[in-house]
Amino acid sequence: MTTITSTFTEDEKKSINQLKECLPDILKDSGVPENYTLWGVPLDKDSKDERLDVILVKFLQARNNDVSLAKEMLTKSLKWRLEFRTDTILTESFPHDLFCKVGFIHKHDKKNRPVTYNLYGGLNNEEVFGNLDRFLRWRVQLMEKGIQLLDFKNVYQMIQVHDYNLVTFASYDNTAKTASKSVTQIMQDNYPEFLAVKFFVNIPWWGDWVFKFISIFLSEQTKAKFVVVSANGVKDSMLEFIDEDNLPVAYGGKSIVPELENKGSADQPPTE
């Protein structure tokens, strides 16, 4: 299997080496320890670990291969991880009965990329989003769990599915808007180029307005990865990426997902 590093351009390889030389200053300026590891990979300028090259190129690609801007982005991201206590977030516990119906990771696509499902319908906004800090920490934990499934050699991105079944215009209130904006900003600032494809399924009639609002905070590279699917096109579109055995029954596949089954058949997204 071709590794990710073999696909780098000569310009990217040059920029990676330049960004590596900046690592001691990045670690110092961000306030993290000199032996700091990011997603299990030491940020050592002398490292020959190809996983480090893959991580660094993510920040470079997010800043159009500009070393100075990538350095600034990585520095700010490490500061955020320190302040947000991101490196211990995998040990934290959140109400399972509440959040299992909001998002979960289920199997992988045809390229072995983990798939995260985010469900927005039938939620009590105050319970889910009312405690914004708790919601953000849960959502970051979900992202970090997905990253644990990446080897940064053959697999370095993931698939996301955003399901708007049962979402009404009234349910997209200020509490939900604030949470959505906050999550979007965190992901764009600190998790560059982790997204391979993002499906938006079962979009309500007023969804265009929501997309315009969310798009304000997204880069063009990110928006290019969006796949917006109508209700009758969900199965065919998702089967292009995910094997039928790994695709949940709710989307036309064969895989049973407790989180979706527990929502009841009436709440299941339509597949035809």
From TrEMBL:
Record-level GO cellular component terms: membrane
Occurrences of domain CRAL-TRIO (ranges): 86-259
Subcellular location field: Membrane
Gene3D superfamilies, per the entry: CRAL-TRIO lipid binding domain
InterPro entries per the UniProt record, alphabetical: CRAL-TRIO_dom, CRAL-TRIO_dom_sf, CRAL/TRIO_N_dom, CRAL/TRIO_N_dom_sf, PATL
Predominant location: membrane
GO MF, one example: lipid binding
Pfam families for the chain: CRAL_TRIO, CRAL_TRIO_N
PROSITE patterns, A to Z: CRAL_TRIO
Protein name: CRAL-TRIO domain-containing protein
Species this chain originates from: Gigaspora rosea
The organism's taxonomic lineage, starting at the top: Eukaryota, Fungi, Fungi incertae sedis, Mucoromycota, Glomeromycotina
